[in-house]
Design brief:
Number of helices: 5
Structural class: mainly alpha
Shape: rod-shaped
Mean pLDDT: 77
CATH class of the domain at 38-177: Mainly Alpha
Strand content: under 5%
CATH topology of the domain at 38-177: Four Helix Bundle (Hemerythrin (Met), subunit A)
Order of helices and strands: HHHHH
Distance between the termini: 43 Å
Low-confidence stretches: none
Largest sheet: none
CATH superfamily of the domain at 38-177: Aspartate receptor, ligand-binding domain
Radius of gyration: 32 Å
Number of strands: 0
Helix content: over 70%
CATH architecture of the domain at 38-177: Up-down Bundle
Length: 236
């Protein structure tokens, strides 16, 4: 079947334009995906990390309040100890609230660590209550002994466990940010190159032609096909 030059040029132009349009569309779609992923990082992963840091601080503050009760203050007001006890209960409630918030969006691995932390935290708080009761009943030696041995060890175990959770979430966040950034730069640069070639093709037309090849169209075709191959064969 013999086609006229006009038909061949029309078919070639249609093919190149279709490939160009599809590549531009796929790049824009990928950029939208990267944008959605960035929003997820900001709305989900970073707040989760901040909640874990708050959990670390609240857990350590529980021990601080127990220490303040044990130390006592000369000439302290009558409501000093009751206020500390109330603050201690608020801290424990805050710890439990933070755990539940983290559970809502945490990964299965993080939830498993939170379960372990919750059990150890309950044991540490029970020990804190026991220490306070011993102190209030006049058995200061027993209270101080438990505070500086068992309760300190429990608190340190809680701190180490939470730091493991924090580091795990942080490392995963760093990897995701690096991956999303690389994908974003690739799609952005691909759009810039394709647009530049299309504009140059309109502004510059070489008078000399290679046999069977128009240099601008051939370059555009190579870039389009290369972009499609990278989109579908490289891992995301």
């Amino acid at each position: 079947m013999n086609l006229s030059i006009k038909a061949k040029l029309g078919a070639t132009f249609t093919l190149v334009f279709a490939l160009f349009a599809f590549t531009i569309w796929s790049s824009i779609r990928e950029l939208n995906t990267r944008n959605s992923d960035y929003e997820l990082l900001v709305e989900h992963d970073i707040p989760e990390l901040l909640l874990i840091e708050s959990l670390v601080a609240s857990s350590l503050e529980v021990r601080t309040k127990v220490a303040e009760i044990l130390i006592g203050l000369p000439n302290a007001p009558a409501n000093h100890i009751p206020d500390l006890l109330e603050r201690l209960e608020m801290l424990e409630a805050n710890v439990n609230g933070l755990i539940e918030k983290i559970r809502e969006t945490a990964s299965p691995e993080t939830i498993e660590k939170l379960d372990e932390f919750e059990l150890q935290s309950a044991a540490a708080y029970s020990m804190a209550e026991q220490i306070i009761k011993s102190e209030m009943s006049g058995d200061g030696d027993s209270a101080n002994r438990n505070f500086h041995s068992a309760h300190r060890e429990m608190t340190e175990n809680l701190r180490v466990l939470l730091l493991e959770v924090h580091d795990s979430v942080h490392d995963a966040l760093v990897v995701r940010v690096e991956t999303e950034t690389q994908d974003f730069y690739w799609e952005r640069n691909k759009l810039l190159v394709l647009s530049a070639i299309a504009i140059l093709g309109q502004l510059y037309h070489a008078e000399r032609r290679l046999p069977l090849i128009e240099p601008d169209a051939f370059l555009m075709l190579l870039v389009l096909l290369g972009g499609l191959l990278l989109v579908y064969y490289l891992p995301s």
